[in-house]
Amino acid sequence: MTSFLQHEPSRAIGAPLQITEALSWRQRHGQKVLIFAARLGVLAAAIIGWQLMAGHLISLLFVSKPTLVWHQLVVWADAGTLWSNSWITIKEILLGYVLGAAAGVLVGFGLSSLRALSSVLDPFIMALYAVPKVALAPLFIVWFGIGLQMKVILAATTVFFLVFINTAAGIKQVDTGLIDAVRLMGGSRAQLIRKVILPASMSGVLTGLRVAIPYALIGAVIGELVASNKGLGYLINDSASTLNTAGVFAALVTLTVIAAILNALVNILGRWTDRWRPADDEH
Amino acid sequence: MPPVLEARQVAKLFAKDNHRIVALESCDLVVKEGTFVALLGRSGCGKSTLLNLFAGLSRPSSGQILLRGAALSGPCPGVGYLTQSDTLMPWRKLHRNIELPLELRGVERAERKRRSDQLIEMVGLKGHEGHYPRELSGGMRRRASLARMLISDPGLLLLDEPFGALDAQLRAEMQAELLRLWQGSGRSVVFVTHDIEEALVLGDRVVVLGERGQVRLDVAVPLERPRDLDDIRVDPDFVNMHRQLNRALKGGRDDVIPAT
After folding, report:
1. Given CB 3.0 to 4.6 Å as the disulfide criterion, which of A10, A61, A199, B208 pairs with B248?
2. Third-level CATH fold of B1-78+156-173+186-260
3. B166 to each of B134, B139, B143, B172, B197, how far by Cα in Å?
4. What's the Cα-to-Cα distance from A8 to each of A12, A282, B55, B228, B255, rounded to whole Å?
5. What's CA B246's distance to the chain center, in Å?
6. Do the chains contact at A13 and B173, CB–CB below 8 Å?
């Protein structure tokens, strides 16, 4: 087997040898397509099973049924209720996320550079982090009313702690060897921050940003459930209070779609930030 | 002319809880301009601590370090330091890693590129400029670190077991490469190792450090250059020195023989 060695370009000693394989479409994508098809199958089975059982094995009052849920979605979509309420919830998620994330990153970097202050504040921050943010909702109602503001702040509070803690951890984990390397090159403090600490802590920051995305949604919806007259959380509450189970499920389905889209964004972000990390499943 | 590097009664203590750990007790060492000094010592004898002090990364607890006659107060761009572990920035591609020292000094992009291309060629990494460190083998990362150190053209090189993690063949190649870069360049080198053969192949002088960095033995290496390990292994001078160094490493207290 010397065939590929003959074409080898001048290679540094100890360098990995790369061979380009000619893979068929099936070899390359077969597995992915199969898994995707299986997922669709599971989803279809669940919906069909639900449809068949509802009204026979379990009362419609409890589980409604897919056709009714679909019907409700269509009615809401026609009336504009679906879009207006979804848009309210999405706005709360986005505003809460951006606000909380920005504050988390800023405070994370700020406190990390003031080591004495951060070691004094550390236990308080951890205690606040451990408080379930739902418990703050009544207080926020008193402070901010039951409008959009209250939901945004509730979402932002949750996001803030996650981003802040991950940012601080990311900064703490910066390899001192890299810092020393730049010091040896005669780098200034500003250069140290820009060329080492910022990029090296970026994985911590981005981890925080990633894990915080679903929590922005949780914060916003909980705020709506506690007190509101708009949003998907309101639709859930309102439908439930009139025993409209189909309405509850329709709102839940919409929330699930929003969550799935956010998760997809998270994954794209993750792939982009981990470019230079060692991949353990390299082909 | 003052020696390029001088340690005078240097001691270094590290605080741990309520007691102090003595890493260096009283170290005296003089490195003359243009020479290659191998510091030989067992693990934990304070070799790396001493090198960190020489590099200006930490300050001695007592005593003095002089760089070309002037007291050292911090890292100095004229000193290159290659640490045991790789400190390439994992988010930078190879060429940007090598250019980093110039980037920090505000050298223009075109000039940076010209110099890094030169060095990449010299250390045999041509064609790998666009790779991230994780995509390179250990030996290639060492070469890249070497290139990054050399790009600022330092007059004094501090090397801390730089080839310790490499396999024997690659290590021999890197040693040869280092000698090629050093010979006739006028640079001074302090090379820390725990390997007697490596010290003898590379050094003009071998200094054996004792437990807390005190100099146990300080000898000139009379072997002629270029030295090929396979040839000098049977040289009676080599065998003698090997034995002498081995005894000193084990703790035998030979008298300090001044380097000639």
Report:
1. B208
2. Rossmann fold (3.40.50)
3. 16, 6, 11, 9, 15
4. 11, 21, 41, 30, 56
5. 21
6. yes
Write the pLDDT tens digit of every residue in A78-111: 999 999 999 999 999 999 999 999 999 999 999 8
- Domain ranges for chain B: 1-78+156-173+186-260, 88-153
Q: Which of B129, B135, B160 to mutate to test binding with chain A, by most A CBs within 10 Å of its CB?
A: B135
Give A-chain residues touching B101 at CB under 8 angstroms.
185-186
Q: Which residues of B touch A191 (CB under 8 A)?
A: 104
- The Cα B66–Cα B54 span in angstroms is 9
ipTM over 0.85: no
- Summarize pLDDT for B7-28 with one digit per residue, the tens: 999 999 888 888 888 888 888 9
**A8 at the B interface (CB within 8 A)?**
no
For testing contact with chain A, the best of B59, B81, B87, B121 (most A CBs within 10 A) = B87
Q: How far is CA B22 from CA A164, B46, B248, in A?
A: 39, 9, 21
| Cβ B94 vs Cβ B141: under 8 Å | no
Please tell me which residue, A259 or B256, carries the higher pLDDT value: A259
- Reported as a single tens digit per residue, the pLDDT across A35-62 is 999 999 999 999 999 999 888 888 888 8
Exposed/middle/buried for residue B94 (C-beta within 10 Å: 0-12, 13-18, 19+): buried
